[in-house]
């Protein structure tokens, strides 16, 4: 059973807007999957969110459970994506997979390289103010 994503009201609104405006997008599959995640997410309306929850601008270390390979990413809007800086678009499959989850959660997700089990190792939200 997949964990339920928890999102701030602000992130939810930004992401919902992104999915609505990306109808002719090249990443239509990710838009559909992100929409599914938004539909089942718990929205935290009072603004207090656990610091270990992945949200927009979070810096996250994730591990492929099978290969033990770790990857660090910062989740950003598509316009801010910059792989050299580790900034990955929210529309990238890996970001859709982990948004709204927390440290130690494991998610199974279909990535371009196949189905992966991803474990969230750490979440840094100090850039979120």
Descriptors for this entry?
129 residues, alpha/beta, Chitinase A, domain 3, 3 helices, globular
Any overview of this molecule?
Helix 1 (9-21) runs antiparallel to helix 2. The protein is an alpha/beta fold and 129 residues long. The longest helix is centred in the N-terminal third of the chain and has 13 residues, at 9-21. The protein contains 3 helices and 7 strands. The protein has helices at residues 9-21, 28-40, 93-98; strands at residues 6-8, 42-44, 59-64, 70-76, 87-89, 106-111, 114-124. It has one domain (6-124): Transcription elongation factor, GreA/GreB, C-terminal domain (Chitinase A, domain 3), CATH 3.10.50.30. Strands 5-4-3-7-6 form a 5-stranded mixed β-sheet. The chain has a two-stranded parallel ribbon with strand order 1-2.
Total count of helical runs of at least 4 residues: 3
Encode the helix/strand succession as letters: EHHEEEEHEE
Tell me the span between the first and last alpha carbons: 32 Å
Low-confidence stretches: none
| CATH architecture name | Roll
- Give the CATH topology: Chitinase A, domain 3
Enumerate the strands of the largest sheet in spatial order, edge to edge or round the barrel: 5-4-3-7-6
Strand content: 25-35%
Q: Write down how many β-strands occur, each being a DSSP E stretch of 2 or more residues.
A: 7
- Top-tier CATH class: Alpha Beta
